[in-house]
Amino acid sequence: MYKYDQYDDAMVRARVEDFRDQTRRRLEGKMTDDQFKPLRLKNGLYLQLHAYMLRIAIPYGTLNSTQLRKLAHIARTYDRGYGHFTTRQNIQFHWIKLEDAPDILGELADVEMHCIQTSGESIRNISADHYAGAAADEIMDPRPWAETLRQMTTFMPEFSYLPRKFKICVIAAEEDRAAMRWHDFGLRIVKNEAGEIGFEVYPGGGMGRTPFIAYKSSDFVPQHQIFSYLQAVLRVWNRHARRDNIHKQRMKILVHELGEEEFTRQVEEEFRHILTLGTDFPQAEYDRIAAYFTPPPFETGLPEEIDRSDPDFAVWIDQQIAPHKAPGYAIVNVSLKPIGGIGGDITAEQMEVVADLAERYSFDELRVAHTQNLVLPHVRKADLYAVWQQLRDAGLADANLDLVTDIIACPGLDYCSLANARSLPVAARIAERFADPAVQHDLGELKIKISGCINACGHHHAGHIGILGVDRKGTENYQLLLGGSGAEDVSQAKITGPGFDEAGVVDAVERAVNHYRTIREPGERFIDTYRRVGMEGFKEAIYG
Amino acid sequence: MKILTGNDLKTGRVIWWDGQGWSLHVEDAADVHDDGEAILAREEAACRVNGPMFIEGERTAEGVRPAHIKDRIRALGPTVRADLTLKPADPNAGNWVI
Ligand code: HEM
Ligand code: SF4
User: How far is ligand 1, taken at its centre, from the CA of residue A457, in Å?
Assistant: First the structure.
């Protein structure tokens, strides 16, 4: 894991002291809200419905136990005992006091964390596959590149006044576990025929009110030229961006308006030029960063067998474990989706349990998944039973990864000032409706994603079933969408028809699911059946 | 009625103008009639409120009811966490917002 050097540390601490001073001046009335707001937003502090909300960056979703314990401490000391993990692998605290915010930033700096570039027109927290460094199917650990890009793009003047927010995602496997093609700039690390490492590049994706799936602009950019390529993309965007209209500023709109071919042509022209400037990352710098991601000292000769004699444990194993690259190890997914509970929420006590497990059983490493779950990336198979028992005692052993109850939902109208409708109760009611484990397993992979407004923080465009909260004459209303995916089989969900109230949308989901059960062919997931038969039959089943 | 509300500058808590000062309870909200702008300007200048705004509401048998669901959720707290609302002992308090 990356460790701050003296420059990183000094920079983050100086920033905390700046903010302490700014906050003091605001509280003393020496600054108006108009003057202060951009400053607090630059430090991740939003004003939401019930209090200030602090968004803390978790670069590429990687945490160690010290950091998670610090988050638990913050939850307990400054918030109301819990935090909320987001679809961008960050954590949000929803009950922060302005007067405490500088102290919290100071505490975060103690564990090499901050809230910089968690809002505004900047390059946001760079996301990555949450199995990075552990996955059996990855070409390499994508995090050294995510970290390199993070360092190159943090505080970089050229990138600090972008037309709009810019989201980067790096993966290194065929399977896309990070919704890579829903980002402004998606990267897949690949190997060419000569065995060299490079990137497939996918610009122009994004959710929000005008969703676009990123297209492939290059099959292979040699790895050490990726920063030049990124600069080329940003320059083309900067040159043409519609800074006059906030709804048209995201790069996806430009890509759409210029057309993929023309956008690529202009990027390549810039790219050729930038390569001549020699601004790419020096190999020595990359090597310095990559050294922090040296794989942990995996033991060899470990047993592969898992004792499945406890039936509850066996169910959990079958759902929550993914293949690890090192023999005798497994990747453990920790569900934050208790039936009827609030997805992505975690209490301070639960954070401490997971931190202890990471320290004891997973080389001190943890990951946050964009699906609002946690991951213990490197657990010996022989330790799985012990890990499961402790998770179970902490209420963290639901066995529902990628099933109908593993629902992504944004905070919605329960917390968010931009919301039209609540997301969290809808998610809870759907999970309760399908709570029976036999039903969940029979349905198989089914990804439901819920956003409380058009901003799409809950990824409804990418849900096998998506739900979007809208305002209908002052009451909550929900549109139902079908057919989206955030995975390697990426697609954009389509609206079924007229919206529903809260109870109505839960019933509508059930009718869609029942229709799938009736007509599915052997081995078909919900999304496969939908793709085979199309919208019409589902529409009839839903609206009757 | 015309209600003046915002968030406490220091704590971020949702607050309601009660005629003399700020209250955490929407039941205390006063009708600011035509005096709103003056109160708002004074309170904002005194750094007691963040994001002050006027909203519509009405007096009902159960007290003051903001017209928009968003303000009713602001008044109560998150409907998914009864324990964190202003009425933690009432598990059905969330029904009021709908
Ligand atoms: C509660 C405070 C939040 C606010 C004020 C907020 C605001 C926004 C806005 C305005 C957009 C649209 C941006 C655009 O299209 O240019 C957006 C998009 C997004 N937000 Fe949030 N958000 C919040 C919370 C969250 C949470 C909790 C998550 C994760 C669960 C999240 C993840 C995202 C994602 C994934 C997108 C879509 C990105 C895209 O358009 O490509 N946000 N958010
Ligand atoms: S989708 Fe809308 S309601 Fe949900 S968190 Fe984002 S901005 Fe808020």
Answer: 4
Q: Residue B80 and residue A414: Cβ atoms within 8 Å?
A: yes
- Of A29, A414, A476, Cβ closest to residue B47: A29
β pairing state of A408-409 and A448-451: parallel
- The domain segmentation of chain B, as residue ranges, is 2-97
Q: How far apart are CA A362 and CA A387, in angstroms?
A: 10
Q: Which numbered atom of ligand 2 lies nearest the CA of A417?
A: 8
B50 phi and psi, to 5 degrees? -120, 135
Chain B residues with CB-CB distance to A49 below 8 A: 14, 70, 73-74
Kindly indicate the confidence band of residue B93, based on its pLDDT and cuts at 50, 70 and 90.
confident
- The interface predicted TM-score of the complex, written ipTM, equals 0.96
Taking chain A, what is the end-to-end CA distance rounded to the nearest angstrom? 54
For A208, A212, A265, A459, the CA distances from A257, given in Å and listed in that order, are 17, 12, 14, 23
Residue with tokens 């090192």: A326
pTM: 0.95
Q: Decide if pLDDT at A187 tops 90.
A: yes
Burial class (CB in 10 A: 0-12, 13-18, 19+), A101: buried
State the closest ligand 1 atom to the C-alpha of A415, by its place in the atom list counted from 1.
1
Domains, chain A, ranges and CATH? Answer: 6-110 (3.90.480.20), 142-291 (3.30.413.10), 311-393 (3.30.70.3340), 408-543 (3.30.413.10)
CB contact under 8 A, A26 and B77: no
Q: Give the tokens for residue B42.
A: 């004074």
Residue A239 has pLDDT above 80, yes or no: yes
Query: Which band of pLDDT confidence, cut at 50, 70 and 90, is reported for residue A261?
Result: very high
Q: Is the pLDDT of residue A190 over 80?
A: yes
**Best residue in A50, A80, A92, A471 for a mutation probing chain B (most B CBs within 10 Å):** A50
**A160 has pLDDT over 80:** no
A32 contacts B51 by C-beta, under 8 angstroms = no
A502: left (phi over 0), alpha (psi -120 to 50) or beta: alpha
